[in-house]
Fold these 2 entries.
Entry 1:
Amino acid sequence: MIELKGVSCRFGSTVAVDAINLTVETGEVCVLVGSSGCGKSTTLRMINRLLPHSAGEISVDGQDIRRIDVRKLRLNMGYAIQGTGLFPHWTVARNVALVPKLLGWSRDRITTRVDELLTLLGLAPETFANKYPEQLSGGQAQRVGVARALAADPNILLMDEPFGALDAITRDNLQNEMLRIQRQVHKTTVFVTHDIDEALRLATRIAVMDQGRILQHDTPENILRSPANAFVENLLGSQDRGLKLSALRRVGDAMSRHPQPCEPDLETDWLSEDDSLRQALSVMLWHEAEQLPVRDAGGAEIGVLSRDQIWTGAT
Amino acid sequence: MRVFIRPCVWLLALLFCASFMSVFEALFGWFQPGQTSLIYQRAGFLSLLQNHVLLVLISGSIGTAMAVSAGILVTRGWGRDFLPLASQVASIGQTFPPVAVLALAVPVLGFGEAPTLMALVLYGLLPILRNTLVGLDGIAPAVKEAASGMGMSPTQVLLKVELPLAGRVILAGVRTSVTINIATAAIGSTIGARTLGDPVIAGLVNGNTGYVLQGALLIGLLAITTDSLFEALQRTWSQRLLAAAVAG
């Protein structure tokens, strides 16, 4: 658990972060979102003491971070940043092994862990372990960056716009990976982004920041339903809030489930259980369908989603 | 290790000329008819070469140590204030002609090797300092931020990340500095240091072109040998990355 109480950060006379209070519960993903210069990155960097806080108190699992040895604090926090910050003169494997090595793990344990992480991030170890960062695409490099952050199994993950410099498709893939990995590892994560869609997608709770203050700290759904003020409303984009809300719901939660899974009808179009209602709506619009069968990951038909259910499910 | 063939060839040529200069006696006699003393005899070329190399080696080591440490100091957080000063001092050092540095050093250190060494150290500082600053500055901020953000100590960041990444650029600075100093060291002969400049000075004083050519030939060969050695070193430095890039 990370707690910020009345935390401020001043550079000379400018106030970058102004007496914010924020609690990140263990295992949740807290996304700090706002335009550039709003203090979100500053907040993140105060948590691992890359920047000192001028006032207030930051504690990790109840311990004031100023009382923890700064290296020990950082070794226990995975850190992934925009542009990856991979060491260009080290191979992928050595980059990922950075923190385990600093912690003095044995060579065997490090090799096993590196392979495990590269596999988790969808990079085949035999292909990628010995490559250098400049030989990777942007998306691959960022995967390595995330693997490096996760390497020593830290309790906390800090991510500063890690997908900011990627193209839309790669970013989309990596967000999916993040969600998948987070379901497996349950790290307490602080994630900084300027992209509200990314925030809505990844967050357990979102903190909307502007001019060094937190305007609203709530679940994606509550922020969409009742934005605290005009700034938040503007950030969400008032036109497609409905669609954004529907994107938060899974098809599997809104459909009517068959009593028994059955053989799918191969002729018709179908939805996957994990699709969002937004995707379902799009498919239905395209095919002018009243309802569509839903399949699970194994390919069996497990239910049916109708247009009405999107309506009742999304609102 | 094929990159080291070239410096080896040049080194052999240098050693050959220094040991057996007399084989060219006929050549020097051919364009200096009437000259009785054709080959510089006052000291052996090999011992002059040895002394010359020693001067450059010592001054190069001191200069590199000083310039790299200065470059590191002024790029740390607490030394940043001195960054402009350091680059200015280094630039001013370079505007001095080497002869002037020698002339200024003589009253302080007397004649001989000591003032020459001082002049060489001062003269060699700038290229190394400048390249150290460029090299350390050229590292992507994200790399340094990631390094310390992941829990590396400042010393670890310096030794494992910054210096290896800046190393090639620093090495290029050392190369420039040493090559310049091989030429500058010869001027040390004017204040009594024993270098390969001796035959050149003696030749100029006595109007013996042969002596001048012999000194110049050896200085030139030494410079080329050293330069190609550095080239080979720089290539080896980047070879690993290069090989990896080709394989990928």
Entry 2:
Amino acid sequence: MQESESIYRFMNKETDIFENVPIMNILKKKFPAYVDQAVDAQRTGRKFAREVIAPRALETDRRCSEDPSYVDLEFYHKAMEAQIPTSIFPKKMGGLGWSTLAFGLWGEEAIAADIGLAALVTFNLFAFIGACVEFRPNVVLHIVKLIVEEERKGNPFFFGWSITEPSGGTDQEHPVAMAASRPSIEAKKVKDGYLLNGTKCFCTNGDLARLICVNAPVDRRRPLETQATFLVSTDTPGFAATRLEVKCGQKASHTAEINFTDVFVPEENLWAPPGEGLRHAQEILSATRGAVALIGLGLTRGVVERTVEYASQKKVRGHRLIDEGWVHYALAGLMTDILPLRTAIMNFLVAIDFMHVVRMLNNPITDIALKISPAKLINSDLVEQLSGLGPVASVVKSIKNKVVSAETVDNFLRHGSAVKPAASDLAMRAVSVCADIVGLEGLTRKHGIEKIFRDAKVTQIYEGPNQLHRLDVFEREVGYDYRRAV
Amino acid sequence: MITDVRFEDEANVIRKVCRDFCRKEIEVSALELDAHYDLEKLRGILVRSVELEILTMLIPEEYGGVGSSVLAAAQVLDELAYGCAGVATIFAYHLAALVALIEGGKEELLKELSAADSPQPTMLTLAGPDMEEREDAPQLVEAKNGLMLKGVIPLVASASLADRMVVFVREADAGLTQVLVDPRAKGVSVQPDEELLGLHTVPFADVVFDGCLVGDADLVGERGKAEQAYKKARAALNVFVAAIAMGTSRLAYSRAYDYAQQRWQFGRMLVDHDEIRRMLANMVTKISMGTAGYSQALKVDGTGTVSSWRSDLAKIFCTDAALEIAVDAIQIFGGHGYMKEQGLEKIMRDAKMLQVLPESNRYMEVQLFGAKG
């Protein structure tokens, strides 16, 4: 059914990136397939958001309010049919071969419709990036195969990434903070692996995940020097999701406390070795902070669009609410920030495609390998085992380290840490300004504006609080060493 | 140590009593009532408040009331809001309705309210006038057997809880009229409670008037002469909402301050980070200035009358401040602040509601100047 024309003209288009991010026109000349795919993803996302996400967002939110353990699996299945959770895997491995840009454009549309549901089907990717960061090809191949096979069979495969400690999440993302922290979790070296003991909190999908990537020090008195990263299978004895958080918003996406009691992790599931845990986390964060910026942007768009819609229908004082001058300025103040921010975030996503870990999936060598090898071979156990062999693994790792140098990661961390607070602060401002415009009647549940208000606040907190990000930017801009801070 | 930003009236007995009442009765139920609206529980709180004479505090002594000032009532609401902004808002609408009735000279009713020996207090609320010039705004219509009220008022606070409703009706030819309505009377229907962002303790609902009879006894003051009563009631409501914003802000601030003293991050206590200090200092500044602002919202003529203009300013400043304070308090708590059990996200949602009660601050700002003001 054709939706009625919106006063918001971009809402009536199938795609708007050539108008809203003009540099895409230039990029298209050089990389037509890359940009076409992104445009297509935006188009698909817009349709999916309108037809699948928006109609169920409020109902799912309500059900999760009544029962925080409710999972909208029906929705997850619809997303699986569209191959969204596996969209960024290469085509030959069973994915859609989406670039980060394409994924981001799909995501922005989904988030503008509902962040809870969007998070449910996209946050798995954070953990996948965790696997890519180490880039041991057998690990990546194994995980991709596992997820694709399960989801083809119709079984949702949730994946978690857990770094936040009960004593704080900020401490897990900065060297000075980590050195001074006393984590609850500790990994003890035993024969053929490690035993994990302790608690992590605020783990997305913690109660649903089959696999969780966990940071833990080998010596909790020296967390910075001994932090390591482990892949934990949640069916291992001793693992338990001990508590499900009852949140203000983003309820369709679960957040859990997880507990480890002598959880055995085999040696091959040690991702980052002791001492490399923070680097591993920072490398993930250097890519994902930009993604969280996308959430701020999507929420801002979502609330502005709904407010424009509401104000153009609401009659006050003999005219439409949107005809009043104060409303123009309030909304324009948000639109003028959306425009440059979207350019900055799209720029970030393109940079990830061309300069960060996903380049490993798109570089000439991988490209040729994927092109000449039949899908059957790529996805065979033999290749997975071969690629796990020492020499193969170390060659790939050294290519990866050349492709994604420490300087690159650092620069991404700076950019990501700049766009994330900018976007999340804008989201918070937008929900407040829009609530002021629509007033009491616009804040009734059915308009969805109150839900976005509840959803927005946590974007200033998760993936690290905005205060930490400002510090990360300051240190990298000035070349400042935080240890000197008084 | 700056944990207490109440800088006046520490000896004020009413305030002290209200503070104890708030601790005992409101604080303990606030989160539960936010999650599940419970009329029985709410009525229990109102019944137990009768002893404190909060509901009758504005009624002049000659009618059997306490004869307190609007500012004294605001301070009481400030105390109650420390427990729950929603519960305090129910009191605020009741007290603002009283201001309208007092100005309208409704002696009999006022006497009845203060003399009532029933354990169930008679709850009032205030509705209208329509500021949006809606087509279905209530009108008084001449009928065979007198006046009739027809129209709709959206989202009346305490609608399903109130026993009497003070309704302001604006008519193009007759001006503003104050009408007392029994929401259970024939021709009045209170629609189901609406779910809103915050203030979940307050039942908000549309009220439909479909030919409800308005007898002479139901008119408060003369028809078309209620401008003054409305102005006073609205000024009082502004001051009350401002006070509630400050009360709930004090809770957010004191929680954040306590947390900042306990939590270790980056190798030091949170409170030892300059950025956290800035936030806390900003909270105290706003609470102090806001509290001073609503406490001084008087006309300069020395009569002790609340000034419409200053009450507008206080309401805008205090409720804007409350949202900023709540958002920062959550930030200090980090992820924990976003969880229901901490109660801070409730303060944030409540604060946002206060900003649009009874009108959006942004629209109020536009109205402060110019021909319409």
